[in-house]
C-alpha cells in the first residue's frame, strides 16, 4: 500500500463551497486499489495553510502528497509543473492578508518543479475520459504558496517524499449565474483517483509534449 495524502481548500472569495475539498473527500472515500489515502482541508490563508499541511504530513507520513485547489475559469484538470517563490495577492486570503511581491521563503530558490510524474498523470486522466493538461503557472495566490511550501519541505527536509499540485475547475453550482466552464465534483474525484494511482506507481515521467506557446 502506498500512503497518499490529498489536500483541498476551504471556500474563498465569497464562494459557498470549494470543489477542491469536495472532490478530495470523495476521492479518499473510495481510494484506488493499493492506495492508503488520507485527506486534510487547508485554510485559504498564507502561512497557516503550509503549517496545517506540515502537521498533516507529520501525522499521516505519506509517500506522495497531492495538493488540490480551485482554478475558476479553467476548463480542465490541470497538473501543475512549477511553483514560484512569490506571494502576490490580487484578492485577500480569508484572513484578509494581501501580500504583494513577498518571498514565500526568503532566500529560497526562485522556483521548484513538481516531483510528481505530471505528464503521466495528465495522460491517465485523459484515458479515463476527462479533460486534463499540464499547467505552467500555479498563480501567485495561496495555491502556489502551498505548492512552493510543499516543494521546499521536500527539498530541505523530506527528500523521500514526492508531491505536487493540481488545479480543478468550478463545480456546476458555482457557475449558474455566469458563463464559466465547470466539471461535476464526482468527475473531478475520479480524476484525482487516477492522479493518485499514477503518482504512486510512476517514478519516471513519460516524455510527451505538454508545453505551451504562451
From TrEMBL:
Q: Which UniProt keywords apply?
A: Cytoplasm, Hydrolase, Protease, Thiol protease
Q: What is its EC number?
A: 3.4.19.3
Active site per database record: 80, 143, 167
Q: Which family does it belong to?
A: Belongs to the peptidase C15 family.
Q: What does this protein do?
A: Removes 5-oxoproline from various penultimate amino acid residues except L-proline.
Q: What class of enzyme is it?
A: hydrolase
Quick one: where is this thing mainly located?
Answer: cytoplasm
InterPro entries the UniProt entry points to: Peptidase_C15, Peptidase_C15-like, Peptidase_C15-like_sf, PGP-I_bact-type, PGPEP1_Cys_AS, PGPEP1_Glu_AS
Source species: Streptomyces sirii
Assembly, in brief, is: Homotetramer.
PROSITE patterns registered for this protein in UniProt: PYRASE_CYS (PS01334), PYRASE_GLU (PS01333)
The protein's name is Pyrrolidone-carboxylate peptidase
| Molecular-function GO term, any one | pyroglutamyl-peptidase activity
What is this enzyme's catalytic activity, as reactions? Release of an N-terminal pyroglutamyl group from a polypeptide, the second amino acid generally not being Pro
Q: Which HAMAP family match?
A: Pyrrolid_peptidase
Family annotation (SUPFAM superfamilies): Pyrrolidone carboxyl peptidase (pyroglutamate aminopeptidase) (SSF53182)
Query: Where in the cell is the protein located?
Result: Cytoplasm
